[in-house]
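Worked example

This section walks through a single chain of length 95. The input is the sequence exactly as stored; nothing has been trimmed or padded.
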Amino acid sequence: MPLRYEIRLRGRVGEHLAAALGLEAEVEPVSTVLSGPLSAPGLRDLLVQLEERGLEVVELRRLPDSPGEVGQRREHEPQAADRRGGGAGGPHRAR
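Given that input, the structure is written out below as tokens.
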């Protein structure tokens, strides 16, 4: 099931690119925000395409599924200490 994501890119990117990728674009003075539903493989493919185009991803975040989810932490999501590597599981390293 696709989840909604928001991807902030450094620089201004035309809406034609967003349309080609099947996403919405919000062009800001120094960045562009792409958003839309993506499956896990679709998100990976998008990140590869952006890298191949030489675009720098500044921020990537999953958007809430519904208004009721805002501010709620799901049980399977790590707590802040776990994301920093200070949780009970010890340090975490990116692969």
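What to look for: The helical segments are 15-21, 40-52, 80-84.
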